[in-house]
Amino acid sequence: MDENGARKADRASGSGSPETPGAPEEGLPPVPQVPEKDLPPVPRVPGVDLPPAPQVSIEDLSPPPEAGTENPPPAAEGRNPFSVGIDGDAASGRAVSRAAAWVAPGVARVGVLFVNAYLVGEPGGPWALVDAGLPLSAAMVRRAAAERHGPESRPEAIILTHGHFDHAGSALALAAGWDVPIYAHPLEMPYLTGRSDYPPQDPTMGGAIAQMARLFPHGGRDLGDRVRELPADGGVPGLEGWRWVHTPGHTPGHVSLFRGEDRVLVGGDALATMNMDSWASHLTRERELRRPPAPFTPDWEAARRSVGFLADLEPSVVAAGHGLPMEGPRAAEGLRGLAGRFSAPRMGRYVGRPARFYEEGGVAELPPPVPDPLPRRVALAAVVIAAGAAIALARRRG
């Protein structure tokens, strides 16, 4: 396995104060805070290794373009009814079609409910789809691709940052329709070939996404012979000038994509550009750099290291799997700030002890689940309602 494809981690404990959101944008309500605490030390388990840190030289990356040389965004042409965020993009003149929004030169965002996919590549040239949205969203993604690249165009490949249901849900349907391959990191293969499920989500840590996660699946999927390993040299099939970097934590084989020429980062779920723990943020889509989606992140120390690595890239644009893209000094400064104050949730199944994975991928060991008070509360509420109904019925009969 190549230098970018595997990490050896020493399980050093993270430190820092709880993260704080960025300043609210004008006209938007402040986002409620979610209490957090510093990451506790992670115990060592003999004989279990994580992949080594990615070997990407920051000095080898090209400098950002000079001010004023970037391509301006196209004018707005419409809105995407499936994405709250597209309205904001259209208002700022950055919608490139009814179903896609401009992010950076050669990059457009397709918002599918609460998750993003990206069309990467200029119209008329080679392009790739990065992440594939939710199950049953293939038609919407195809429509966005046809509007941007032409009805007869097809991507060189589908690139998955990871295999969770909201990022790979329509990957097989899209790949079959376009007759193209799907690429992912080697450590994601067990979850994309039907050999393993992901660690169960943890709904006990509190916050909006934790409550919603009760309804989400955590199983793997079988993409058959469509799925292939990403090139060992860090190149991205069909995308010249882009490289993938290994950013584990949210999943063992999570990757992010980086274009050194103008320092554009497509980060997947290694981070988020919204506060997913806040109900208000799911409505306002206020831009802020935050940790990965908490209920599905089984290794917080690896996630902390990955955020630190991405911060060292000093991106000019940050496009994540959840939230609206961020650009300019706010993106790089916000990411550095997140890396400096990164913290795990204050409680949860994977907070004190991460899930363990086999060297070749797949779940090796899970920490025990923590008590979940919600079922008991629901049962108690049901008893109270039933008792009240029985008393009311008895009085009516009497």
State the gist of this model.
This is Probable metallo-hydrolase YflN. The protein is built from 10 helices and 15 strands. It is of the alpha/beta class and about 400 residues long.
Structural overview:
- Helices cover 25% and strands 15% of the residues.
- Helix 8 runs antiparallel to helix 9 (329-341).
- It starts with 83 loop residues before the first helix and ends with a helix.
- It has ten helices and 15 strands.
- It has 398 residues and is α/β, with parallel strands linked by helices.
- The chain has a single domain (58-397), classed as 4-Layer Sandwich (Metallo-beta-lactamase, Chain A).
- The longest helix is centred in the C-terminal third of the chain and has 25 residues, at 373-397.
- The strands form three sheets. Strands 1-2-3-4-5-6-7 form a seven-stranded mixed β-sheet, sandwiched between helices. A six-stranded mixed β-sheet has the order 8-9-10-11-12-13, covered by helices on one side.
- Strand 4, helix 2 (138-149) and strand 5 form a beta-alpha-beta unit.
